[in-house]
Design brief:
By secondary structure, this protein is mainly α. Helices cover 52% and strands 5% of the residues. It has one domain (4-150): Winged helix-like DNA-binding domain superfamily/Winged helix DNA-binding domain (Arc Repressor Mutant, subunit A, Orthogonal Bundle), CATH 1.10.10.10. The two termini are 39 Å apart.
Length: 168
C-alpha cells in the first residue's frame, strides 16, 4: 500500500544511494528530505530489519544502503514498508489458493479481472524503477505528470459545481 511511510522511505533510500559509502545520520537525512526525524527513525529501523539498510553507531555513525541500489526496485521497497500495493480482498488468495469469499460463482469476477490488471501494471512499473534510478534526483528525469482520466475529471468538476450550488 502506498502511504506516507512508503513515500518517505523511497526518498530516504534515494538519498542514501546518492551518499554512496558515506553514512548519513537520521538528523542529516531528515533535514535533506524534509521528513520528521522520529518518523524517519521508525522507517529506517524497519528497513534495517529487512536488510535494506545498515546502521552504525558512534560519531561517524549513521545509515547506509546494505543492498546494491542497482538491484533494489521500488516494488520491493513498497512491500517492505507498506505491504501489498493492492490489498483488495478479490486479489488475495488463501493458503490453499482459494479465492475470496465475496465473489459469486466459480469464475473470476469483473472486479478481480480489472484490479488484477491494474495491479500487474503497477507492479511492472515499480519493478522497473531501481533505487539507483532515483539517486540522480527528480529533476534529472522528465516524467509525465500523474494522469486523471477525462471522465474522472468531469465527475470531479460536476461534484464541485454541485457543492458550490448547494452552498448558495
Amino acid at each position: 500500500m502506498l502511504t506516507r511511510k512508503t513515500t518517505y522511505g523511497i526518498r530516504a533510500l534515494a538519498s542514501l544511494a546518492r551518499a554512496g559509502e558515506r553514512s548519513l545520520s537520521v538528523a542529516e537525512l531528515a533535514a535533506r528530505e524534509g521528513i520528521p526525524e522520529h518518523f524517519l527513525s521508525v522507517i529506517l529501523s524497519d528497513l534495517r530489519q529487512r536488510g535494506i539498510v545498515r546502521g552504525r553507531r558512534g560519531p561517524d555513525g549513521g545509515y547506509q544502503l546494505s543492498v546494491d541500489p542497482n538491484q533494489l526496485n521500488l516494488a520491493d521497497v513498497v512491500e517492505s514498508l507498506g505491504g501489498p500495493l493492492f490489498s483488495f480482498a478479490c486479489l488475495q488468495r488463501g493458503a490453499d489458493g482459494a479465492r475470496c469469499a465475496e465473489c459469486p460463482g466459480a469464475g473470476r469476477c469483473a472486479a478481480e479481472l480489472a484490479l488484477g490488471r491494474a495491479s500487474a501494471a503497477a507492479y511492472a512499473v515499480l519493478e522497473s524503477i531501481l533505487v539507483r534510478d532515483l539517486a540522480g534526483g527528480a529533476t534529472e528525469t522528465a516524467e509525465p505528470e500523474p494522469r486523471v482520466s477525462s471522465a474522472v475529471r468531469s465527475k470531479i468538476s460536476a461534484a464541485a459545481s454541485k457543492r458550490r450550488g448547494q452552498r448558495t
